[in-house]
Please model this.
Amino acid sequence: MTIKYSVSTEEFGTLDDSQQGLYSQGEDGYTLNVEGVPREDVSGLKRKIDELLTEKKTVQQKASEAEELAKVQAADKMRKANDFEQLYNSSESERQKASEELATLKANLQKQQIAGQAGQVASELTKDVARAKLLTEQISSRLSLVDGEIRVLDVNGNLTVSTVQELTQSIKAEYPFLVDGSQAAGGGATGGNSGAGDTKQVSRAEFDGYDAVKRMKFVKSGGKII
Model:
């Protein structure tokens, strides 16, 4: 009968008492009691296994730390990207707002320059406030500011080579009833010889409420503002 040097606990249980007496219990079963036979030293193997297990844990820990670091970096990158986008959008909104305000300011300045030129021409044609206002509106519609210079437009709004003086003569011919000294606005005009009771009169507030066409008709008819 062959006797094994080492047996498991299950195998040890199948042995009879005389055979069991030949074995000593160890960590992994039972080992035969034999003098002169060195026991296998497994401490080095255990140390190696422990080292491998420790190394595995270290690698897993480093991998986990690297993964967490990557997540943090990705989140930080996304946050910075969002911050940049918000900053850019805010800056672009402010730039657009400033651009619109500048355009509005330029447009208002142009209107003021045109109105100023038109008002100057109108004041040379009449001393009557109501007529001057109508003339200013008509002259303004025929002026434009190009490269900082007042230019004359035709009736269709196209640029011409005409001067402001030429436009003034055109306005005098087109709206004689608004110009001081014109027969169309004086005693020869319709209703010019009528009595005071025949002349239509309106208040300044009522006249200001008229549109440009109605104002012009009123003045042309010889109406008076009281």
Confidence is low (pLDDT under 50) at residues 183-198. The first helix runs from residue 9 to 14. The radius of gyration is 54 Å.
